[in-house]
Amino acid sequence: ATKALLDAQKAPKRLDAPAAATEAAGAAGAGRGSAWNTAGTWEERDVSAWAREELRVTLSRLRLAGGCRVVHVKELEGTASIISMRGKTKHPFELKFDLEWEIGSS
């Protein structure tokens, strides 16, 4: 009887798509990492490309008092990531950029 019970527990079970998607979305909630990482161990995701592009766009739109504006983002490099560990989320980054700017009356 015990062997039959163990065999029944090991048997593959079909997951229907909506239930699996809902379960995965719930497990990947804010600060909890991926669905597979239910223990909350270290999980790091590289978001460097996204961070560089967002910074480039933000700097390009920057306007300061006195007519100072960014003309061109010449160089932009660095890394950014999202780390989930033990239910906490951290956002370490290191970004470096060179700007071409001007001060005018516009």
Q: What do these coordinates show?
A:
The protein has 106 residues and is α+β, with helices and mostly antiparallel strands. 2% of the residues are buried. About 7% of the residues have low confidence. Strands 1, 2, 3, 4 and 5 form a five-stranded antiparallel β-sheet that branches. It has one domain. The longest helix is centred in the middle third of the chain and has 13 residues.
In short:
InterPro entries: Aha1 (IPR036338), AHSA1-like_N (IPR015310). This protein has helices at residues 2-10, 17-27, 48-60; strands spanning 43-46, 63-64, 68-85, 88-90, 93-103.
Nearest-integer average pLDDT: 81
User: Helical residue percent?
Assistant: 25-40%
Largest sheet: 5 strands, antiparallel
Give the topology string: H per helix, E per strand: HHEHEEEE
Name the quaternary structure: single chain
Query: Which radius of gyration do the C-alpha atoms yield?
Result: 24 Å
Number of strands: 5
Number of domains: 1
Strand content: 35-45%
The stretches of 5 or more residues where confidence is low (pLDDT under 50) are 24-30
Number of helices: 3
Essential attributes:
single chain; 106 residues; alpha+beta; five-stranded antiparallel β-sheet; 3 helices; 36% strand
Topology:
Elements: H1 2-10, H2 17-27, E1 43-46, H3 48-60, E2 63-64, E3 68-85, E4 88-90, E5 93-103
Antiparallel strand pairs: 1-3, 2-3, 3-4, 3-5
